[in-house]
Every structure is written in C-alpha cells, then in structure tokens.
Design brief:
By secondary structure, the protein is of the alpha/beta class. It is built from twelve helices and twelve strands.
Length: about 325
C-alpha cells in the first residue's frame, strides 16, 4: 500500500506526528513524505496522488476536487488528522468512491472539555476574584458571588459530537440540560437525558448557554438582540463553535450593561480586530480566548492515531470507525 503524507514540514505536522505515530504510519505501507515547508497547491497535490492508495492530510490541505483527483488512479482513502472535513471533501470525491476518515472524535471530546472549563471559569468568577484585581484588601470580599456548576440549568444549542461528549461530562454535576436541535426529536433527547427546548426557552430559563452548532448560512447571527434580551441577569453565554453564530454588535451592547456575561473562543473575524467593542468590555464580564477550544496540544497525536487505525481497518476489510459520509460532511462547519 502506498501512502502519501501531504502535511508540510513544520511545527503543525510535528505536533501530530510523534515518533510513535511515525512508526505506526510507516508500518502500514510505503510512505512518501511531503518535504516542503509550504502548503501544497492543488496542482502539486494532484501530481503527488498518482499511484497513491491513502492520502494523509491536515489543516490547509486543498479540497479534493475533480481537478485534484484527476490523476488519483488508486486513491481509496483520505485520512484527515483534523476535525471538520467540510473544506476538503467534494461531490467528485464521494462519486469516485473515495472514503474519508478524520480525527473529529478527539477534537470534539477536547472542545467539550474546554467548553465545560469556560462554564466553570465564568461561574466561579476567576478573573473578577483574582487577588491582584481585588482592591484595597487583596483578599475575598464577604459578599463574593461565585456559583457552582452543580444543579444548574444549562442550555446547549446544536447537537453533534461536541454536545454528545459535553452532556456526558455534565451528568456528574446533576445539571438540568435543555437542548435546541432541529434534527433531534423529543424522544431522542429524552433518551440521552436532556429536554428538547426552543431557543427562546433556553435563553430565558438557562443559567449557562453553550453554542455548539455548525456554521452555515442558515445559522448566521442566529443569536441576536432578541434572544440576548431574554437572558437572566447574571447568565453566562459560552461560544466555542463559530463566531458568526452571534451578532457581535448586539452582544457587545448587552455586555456593556454588565447584566449578562460571556466567554468566547471564536469570533466573526479572526484575529479579533483592533477597535472591536469587545476590547473595551471588562474582563470579569467578557472572557476572550484566541480560538484555543480544541484539541489541546497533547491530544493532537491521538487525533492522528485514530485515523491511522482506520487505515489498518481498511487494509483488513473491517468497518471504519471515524468515517465521514457525504451527508454528514454537509452538516459540518466550513
């Protein structure tokens, strides 16, 4: 079996390809490594796919269009070490019977973990009560306002792999979870231990609200002034999904009042532009992270390993555990 590693030389590839992973990949077949430090152009990738059975790729890989696949006479599997495959798959790829697996399960698990951390960070008010920020005593006030995650009512917007992991992580906290999902029935929601709810119910009744839905034209600015106005005083909004789910100007106006709080990992335009209203909102009201939701650096090798395991399964004629079908790819974020 011939395998082409398309990820360019550099830190990102090294963060996925530990010695253990390199040995594992090379045990699966004859591996040709991309020796360039630059991301591949579609033309270069097309030439590299001649006589290749498996292409291993990652962030920045060109889309597998008809043109890129023109010379891919043997390609059976694309092993994508990252999460969402929406940017690299194409109808042409699926029509040729080329399958794709990805590290989405590892990505989703770590994003869910990070999202729960955002919730706890804001409820415990870590920034507000960091002792160097407390004047004049540099010690806790008698009327501190920290909250626990235990027994909270938590709203989740969107149901996919991240929400699936998050719901499991929240169960030990005895949280009441409300879920907004167009593709989940009330019976399915009950089976996973949550209550199906409308966006209006979630925003008016939940102490913590987490956005976990995909980015698509239908969801652009789905979180608007009307929904933000429904939030309880002191409620927390967490976004580790995509920035343009929120009308950022509307959110900024609500945050300026101090009535609600938010913890954000993603933004409509990244990096967050200079002069954005978010920069002028106090840290205890708005926590800003630079798109670090997941996976954590130590989990990148695990994401690569699960797709390498699927290469082995394909060799053995076994079912692939991390395959993304054409229909599922259309629900993933671009």
């Amino acid at each position: 079996m011939k395998i082409y590693m398309s990820m360019p030389v550099g830190f990102i590839r090294d963060s996925f390809m530990t010695k253990e992973n390199i040995d594992m990949l090379e045990s699966l077949g004859e591996v040709t490594w991309n020796e360039s430090e630059e991301k591949l152009t579609p033309e270069v990738l097309a030439d590299a796919l001649v006589d290749v059975d498996v292409c291993v790729c990652g962030w920045g890989c060109p889309q597998f269009t008809e043109e890129v696949l023109a010379k891919a006479n043997k390609l059976k599997l694309v092993a994508y070490t990252a999460g969402s495959v929406a940017n690299i798959v194409s109808d042409a790829m699926y029509e040729r019977g080329i399958r794709i697996v990805c590290g989405n399960e590892v990505f989703a698990r770590t994003v869910a973990e990070g999202t729960v951390a955002h919730m706890m960070f804001m409820l415990r008010r870590f920034t507000e009560y960091e002792i160097r920020n407390i004047l004049p005593s540099h010690w806790k006030p008698v009327d501190f306002k920290t909250e626990s995650l235990f027994d909270q009512t938590i709203g989740i917007v969107g149901y996919g792999a991240i929400s699936r992991y998050m719901i499991q992580m929240l169960k030990p906290f005895n949280a009441k979870i409300k879920l907004f999902s167009k593709h989940t029935t009330e019976e399915q929601a009950a089976a996973i231990g949550v209550q199906k709810a409308s966006l209006e119910e979630i925003f008016s009744t939940c102490r913590v609200i987490s956005l976990n839905t995909a980015k698509n034209p239908e969801n652009h600015h789905m979180i608007n002034d009307r929904l933000l106005s429904l939030m309880q005083d002191g409620a927390v909004l967490v976004n580790t999904a995509r920035g343009d789910l929120i009308d950022e100007m509307a959110l900024a106006e609500h945050l300026k009042t101090g009535r609600i709080r938010a913890s954000l990992d993603v933004y409509e335009r990244e990096p967050l532009r200079a002069g954005h209203p978010f920069w002028n909102i106090p840290k205890e009201v708005l926590h800003l992270q630079p798109h670090l939701g997941g996976p954590t650096m130590d989990q990148r090798p695990a994401a690569a390993r699960i797709v390498f395991e699927d290469i082995r399964r394909m060799q053995n004629g076994e079912p692939l555990e991390n395959e993304i079908t054409s229909s599922r790819s259309k629900t993933m974020t671009k």
